[in-house]
Predict the structure.
Amino acid sequence: MLTLKLIQEKRDYVIDRLKVKCFDATEIVNKIISLDNQRKTLQSDTESAQKSMNEISKSVGMLMKEGKKDEAEKAKTQTAALKAKINEQTNQLKEIEVELQKNLVLLPNLPYEEVPQGKTAEDNKVVKMGNEIPTLTNALPHWELAKKYNLIDFELGVKISGAGFPVYIGKGARLQRALINFFLDEARNAGYLEIMPPTVVNQASGFGTGQLPDKEGQMYHCEIDDLYLIPTAEVPVTNIYRDVILDEKDLPIKNCAYTQCFRREAGSYGKDVRGLNRLHEFSKIEIVRIDTPEHSKESHKEMLAHVESLVKKLELPYRILHLCGGDMSFTAATCFDFEVFSAAQQRWLEVSSVSNFDSYQANRLKCRYKSADKKPQLCHTLNGSALALPRIVAALLENNQTEKGIRIPKVLVPYTGFEYID
RNA sequence: GGAGAGAUGGGUGAGUGGCUGAAACCACAAGUUUGCUAAACUUGCGUACGGGAUUACUGUACCGGGGGUUCGAAUCCCCCUCUCUCCGCCA
């Protein structure tokens, strides 16, 4: 969430910036400012009452010690009214703070200046394209290829779990493992520390990264234990730094993690969900960075370069989109999507989203850093997929189908141990 | 699942009603000394939100969370959560 300080000091700027996200913040911002001002007045008032109270209490102690019982009793009688006042005001303060908090979480993150104007995915700006789109004849979509070569059994998944939980078999399973190892190795070579986090998290973690309370319905929830299955490794890996004050010299922190990801995808159906296009469970390697405000943009560039190197090495036709204000997520300050072209479906498939959250997420997480003799200040957090497997697999299968089977990109062969799926 | 113990600052850990935002030690930072390193010594070292010339300084709150008793609570009482140990079960 945005900081109070920013809203107080740059009211008009905040409202103006949020217009890029097609969000009219005027009302909420005004409410927040008025609540905060009330809070300040009330707080000063309450604190001065508390001060008097503390002084009286102290004097009672002293008088008792000196054996002046009568005077002590007399002092005690002065406290009742004060106490009532303090109680009442403290309750009011709490109410105001709750209300303030409620309003604060309603405001999306401010988009950076360079974010394109626009409302929908149509307005996203293609900033780069790479690798040739292959021209295929009689190309099969990946779900048919998966059947033909016995790589993925979707029906079996339905039997065991339900739609959206495919079963990978033989070379299909090995391809998964190869991609996971390839992506992790690439990340490690780029300086990321490998983490293997839990895939089930508590409420506090869900709140920290912003899935809760707004996107509650997107996560699987184990009610008995009140735990959530993670929709992305971002959740556990970023929450490592919840309520943490880091040392400036430890930044930037660069972590990566492979996890299974679980998404309910409530409400989506139709041809978009065919095959591997949209799943309830899938594998993803995520890169996460914690950085200083001064360096986070540089970090973001490096992450984009890393993700681009992956799709390049996999020889997949790709394009990079700078998301417009309206299509960006609630929490992002700027975001680039990577899409690969799936030649049989003739569609671009999103395989990565690389975002800078500025201090928005850090403010929720209370993730701060400290330099020499300065006060702690909020970090910037960033993350991106590097990469999500299913759509990569869809594109690999479709684009590389040949007469003699499906060709594995050179860079993956050491990982798969085979050059063709046939 | 059964039984017990515990939760204090970055860490270890003292503290059974006021002089405790909190001893001591460790870690960390700055300085002094020594030819370097090390050692020794000195000093400093929590967070949040306020007030303030936004420097100095200063107020309030915070000892797992919430409530209560009291003029006054880290300390007493109640509830909750979590952690640890032992037993059982088990990958």
